[in-house]
Amino acid sequence: MLYRDAIDRHKAMLAEMDALNLIRLTGHLHLYRNEAQLAKDEASWQTRRMHGIPLERLSRKEIEALEPDIAADYQIGMFLPGHGMTIDPLVMATTVAEETSRRQVRFVAEKVLRLVPEGGRIVGVEAGGKVHRADHTVVAAGMWSRELLRAIGYNVPLESQRGYHIDVVDPGVSPSRPVIPADRKVFITPMQGRLRVAGTVELLGLDAPPTEKRARLLLNDLAAVYPQVRLDKLQDNWMGHRPCLPDSLPVIGSARKWAGLWCAFGHGHLGLTGAAVTGDLIANLLCSRPVKVDLAPFSVDRF
Ligand SMILES: Cc1cc2nc3c(=O)[nH]c(=O)nc-3n(C[C@H](O)[C@H](O)[C@H](O)COP(=O)(O)OP(=O)(O)OC[C@H]3O[C@@H](n4cnc5c(N)ncnc54)[C@H](O)[C@@H]3O)c2cc1C
User: Fold this and answer.
1) Mean pLDDT of the chain
2) For the chain, which terminal residue's Cβ has fewer other Cβ atoms within 10 angstroms, N or C?
3) How far, in Å, from the CA of 242 to the mean position of ligand 1?
4) Model-level pTM?
5) Closest residue (by CA) to atom 20 of ligand 1?
């Protein structure tokens, strides 16, 4: 339940930046063709119920009331009213970066070559031909955290589940919220001025080039849910890394082997959701403020 207050954390951060318009509390709509399909996911719905996550089962008529364009094949909906979305992850990330840089955060656009150990502490990083010294060093380099930590004795079994998205402009359908067809395992999300379909898991590591075909296959998933969709204006496709760990938990907190070292990576499929939560935790830890979460399960020393 690390992410239970993720939306509140995002709202608090964006409100401070006068950018609350970047997220919308629309709920998420999961779709099933029939009872047999729904039964396959019962364990995950049961887990959500157990943890008190609000959810509603919807009939076909209720699906239509929320999202009129959805193909008639989808007869059952599971609606998560407390969930939300951003209207554009890139705009959100650049807004946060610009706002923080106005508040004394200094960005140095250099590749970190190594963490610098000295007398049992990590004392900073080497980048751009010099050592940047710091009282605290936070490794938040997504998939690339693995190599940075390997050099100081950690063998973190981080693996990339590569995923893709493709954006369609003027699609002729207009969902109001993320729509997730269970048989396709993709997210269809309205973005500013375009419709995005995202998904797939590809295990090809960090260096292989993107498989363009995979992004284009997402259009079949989109057409299964919206048979009337227009696909003549494709705007953008993208491949990204989801940094995943075998126990599906991220790595957050201090490192036992090295004083001054902190970790914030491995959020897998939920790194955008978890960003504000992890950022808040790390900020509190660095300032020696109490945190409510037991961080033991998230320690880098578990590997
Ligand atoms: C198709 C797709 C859809 C997704 N959808 C969602 C979603 O709906 N909701 C959600 O919550 N999550 C989603 N995710 C997951 C999310 O994108 C990731 O969990 C998240 O990006 C991880 O964030 P991160 O900051 O840890 O790593 P990254 O986003 O990979 O960022 C790491 C950064 O570190 C930099 N870096 C690496 N090495 C160095 C170095 N040596 N020196 C300096 N800088 C370095 C990199 O350049 C990069 O900017 C999705 C992912 C994909 C691929």
Assistant:
1) 97
2) N
3) 6
4) 0.95
5) 271
Ligand 1 close to Cβ of residue 165 (< 6 A): yes
Domain ranges of the chain: 27-83+162-240, 108-159+246-291
Closest CA to 114 of 81, 145, 70, 89: 145
Residue 107 banded pLDDT, cuts 50, 70, 90: very high
Name the closest-CA residue to atom 33, ligand 1.
141
Question: Given a cut of 90, is residue 236 above it in pLDDT?
Answer: no
111 lines ligand 1 (CB under 6 A): yes
Q: What share of the chain is helix, strand, coil (3-state, %, to 5)?
A: 30, 30, 40
The bridge status of strand 85-86 relative to strand 23-24 is antiparallel
> For 159-193, what is each residue's pLDDT tens digit?
999 999 999 999 999 999 999 999 999 999 999 98
Whether 84 shows a pLDDT value over 90: the answer reads: yes
CA of 238 to the centre of ligand 1 (A): 12
Among 96, 167, 241, the mutation site with the greatest number of ligand 1 atoms within 8 A of its Cβ is 241
In CATH terms, the superfamily for domain 27-83+162-240 is D-Amino Acid Oxidase, subunit A, domain 2 (3.30.9.10)
Question: What is the whole-number distance in angstroms between the Cα of residue 37 and the centre of ligand 1?
Answer: 31
Distance between Cα 59 and ligand 1 center (Å):
36
In the numeric block, which tokens belong to residue 115? Answer: 């963490």
Radius of gyration of the chain (CA): 21
The protein residue whose alpha carbon is closest to atom 15 in ligand 1 is: 269
Query: What pLDDT is recorded for position 12?
Result: 96
Cβ 269 under 6 angstroms from ligand 1:
yes
- Residue 168 burial (CB < 10 Å; 0-12/13-18/19+)? buried
108-159+246-291: what CATH class? alpha beta
Distance CA 93, CA 101 (A): 12
